Amino acid sequence: MKILTQIIITALFANLLLPGIALASYSDVNGNYEFTEAIDYLELQGAIGGAEDFRPDEPINRAEAFKIIFELMLGEEALDEASSGTYFTDVPEDAWFTPYSTLAKKYELLRGNSFLPNNPLRKFEALDVLLRAYGSGTAITPTSQRTNLFADVSSTHPMYSVVKAASEMEVITANENETLQPYKVLTRGEFADLIYNFDSWSTIQLASELEGSSEFYKSDIFAEIWTDILEDFYLQNGNEIDPEALFQAAVKGMVQSLDDPYSKYFTAENLDGFLVILSGEYEGIGAYLIQDEETGQVFITEFVEGSPAKAVGLKIGDEITAIDDTAITDMTMEAITNRIRGEEGTSVRITILREGQSKTYEVTRQALKVETESAKIIYSDSWYIDINQFASNTAQHLMELILAMQAEVPEPESVIIDLRGNSGGYINAATFVAGLFLPNMTPLLQLDYGSFAETIYNGDTGPYQDLEVFILVDQFTASASEILAATLQENGAATVIGTRTFGKGTAQQMSQYWDGSALKLTIAQWLTGGGMSVQGLGLTPDIEITASTAELEAAKTKNRDLWLEEVREQL
Fold first, then answer.
1. Which of 5, 24, 132, 359, CA to CA, is 20 to 30 A from 159?
2. How far is the C-alpha of 176 from the C-alpha of 153, rounded, in Å?
3. C-alpha to C-alpha distance for 219 and 152, rounded to whole angstroms
4. Are 364 and 400 within one domain?
């Protein structure tokens, strides 16, 4: 939520209020009221107003609270930023609060999948939402380091991390001899005071960060260097500098200086290749790929249904070494993808390394439709869910598949989630799936941003938490799929079967720009709710598949799946 924080950095500098003097125009708010200063401030900022009464002692509902949050942070641009339509089944498209619900979804301020506009807002919910809005995390404190914060918030309280984070920001003051009443419904006045305290903290933080900073003005130097090169650099007659090439070199140089294999800058053309698998339809050979960012090696992890690559004999685990007889050494994943893709009916030569032997296959490209999720009933009473990639629509599509299976088998003996070859995708899609099998408010993962940390809790009710779950993994199970496997394993909600996973424990953010280019930037390291990292290590299964490559190939020729055979044995 750093975007929101940046928008409101000048708020308190512009308006200094005198305690005890009521500036508000509300007939029911006077200078003696406990929260007058906060209400005055919100009105001056344009976050509230337009009514005769403020009704400070009435309970505030969720819709009203989110309106105040976004009117304060985005001002007149709030409604412009809101997406059309609605994300929630409990939000009509024409309701006054619909734009604020879409903003809550956009900025990830909600944990669950319902907006609940008319529900009264409880204190711990308000703290949780505002912590997210102001970019302050809720890192889990180890049990051994916990102390009682309030008389009613002990070291074992389920909302301990949220209350702890708020007390460290000093928006509330911890005192084990007093009560916080975390489940108390907030009045409109109390909510105004709470958001005012958060806004004050944000401004003080910004002032501290900017004090004595010279980096803030470095962009001026960059602009001067750019101009000097274009106007004054000596060129022989007839030669000229390409401004676009100069810009690309400057940006790529900045990103490369980070020495992070997962942070990359994409031109508009390369971005198209990067996003193609998640787009649903494309023309190519129908293979999922993963690149070891440290070594540059590229492996086939899975095939799309009807894949021409699989039909000609390419196999999962094959290392791609050349495309059309050109070695892929030092190529980015995007460049490799662009070389493999092409018009339907054209062909491409793929050279691979398999068990030390080099082989070349000619594959005719086809028009393909990617289904990142599929499901079916197996063993007559078990749900089998295969997730190849965590796409933007995974949550919606997966629930449709689950409900269809539930109609056929309401009480399955087990749920089998196949993550073999799943190289990751969107973190929120993975945490959504995890939330289906865990109790409400279970910590799903931590995101360590360096200067602060955030804990993602389960906002779902865990409708399938009582089912027996098996997760199938292999060496190509990576990133978001490792989050799902590790979270369910750590909470004792699933048995993980397979081989040690890939070991990618960082999270990236994609920012796209007006010219079609984009930056994929590592912004955090993720850990499980209990603080475990898989970075460079991978996840160790509960039950390991120890078969050799030859044994696996022999099993496949007999249509045997050693992973599923292990599930049957456990059942």
1. 5
2. 8
3. 50
4. no
* Sequence-ordered strand ranges (E) for 425-494: 443-448, 453-457, 469-473
Of 64 and 356, the structure prediction assigns the larger pLDDT to: 64
Name residue 496's beta-bridge partners.
471
Q: Which pLDDT does position 32 carry in this prediction?
A: 77
How many other β-carbons are positioned within 10 Å of the β-carbon of residue 321? Answer: 17
pLDDT tens digits, residue range 408-460? 999 999 999 999 989 888 888 899 999 999 999 999 999 988 878 888 899 88
358 and 413 belong to one structural domain: no
Residues 304 and 418 both lie in one domain: no
Query: Which of the pair, 131 or 548, is modelled with greater confidence?
Result: 131
- pLDDT at residue 1 greater than cutoff 60: no
Q: How far apart are CA 149 and CA 104, in angstroms?
A: 29
Q: Are residues 380 and 362 in the same domain?
A: no
CA 173, 178, 184, 189 torsion-angle sign: negative
State yes or no: pLDDT of 189 exceeds 90.
yes
Question: Is residue 262 a part of any domain in this protein?
Answer: no
Tell me which of 41 and 276 has the higher pLDDT: 41
The chain-wide mean pLDDT, for the chain, equals 84
Domain that holds residue 428: 373-570
In angstroms and rounded to an integer, the radius of gyration of the C-alpha atoms of the chain is 27
Which of 224-238, 241-255, 404-418 has the highest mean predicted lDDT (pLDDT)? Answer: 404-418
Domain count of the chain?
A: 3
Short-list 296, 234, 236, CA closest to 261: 296
How far apart are the C-alpha atoms of 104 and 86, rounded to whole Å?
11
Average pLDDT estimate for 238-256:
86
Cα 466 to Cα 168, 229, 376, 387, 413: the distances in Å are 36, 66, 20, 21, 11
DSSP code, position 447 = E
| Cβ burial 4-36 (10 Å sphere, 16+ → b, else e) | bbeebeebbeeeeeeeeeebbebeebeeebebb
What sign has the CA pseudo-torsion 499, 286, 278, 112? negative
**Which of 177, 209, 241 finishes a domain?**
209
Q: Choose one of 332, 349, 369: the last residue of a domain.
A: 369
Mean pLDDT lowest among 57-61, 196-200, 449-453, 531-535: 449-453
The verdict on 453 and 551 lying in the same domain is yes
The backbone torsions φ and ψ at residue 449, rounded to the nearest 5 degrees and listed phi first, read: -90, 5
Whether residue 359 is found in the same domain as residue 397:
no
pLDDT (average), residues 134-150: 78
pLDDT for position 30: 78
Same domain? For 312 and 383 the reply is no
| Residue 118 and residue 104 share a domain | yes
Task: List strand residue ranges (DSSP E) for 182-286, in order.
Answer: 264-266, 281-284
Query: Would you say 155 and 166 are in contact if contact means Cβ atoms under 8 Å apart?
Result: no
Cα 121 to the chain's mean position, in Å?
A: 25
State pLDDT tens for residues 14-35.
333 333 334 446 888 876 788 8
Long-range CB pairs of 511-520, under 8 A, 24+ apart, other chains included? 512/271, 515/268, 516/267, 516/268, 516/271, 517/265, 517/266, 517/267, 517/268, 517/271, 518/265, 518/266, 518/271, 519/255, 519/263, 519/264, 519/265, 519/266, 520/262, 520/263, 520/264, 520/265, 520/266, 520/274
Whether 237 is in a domain gets the answer no
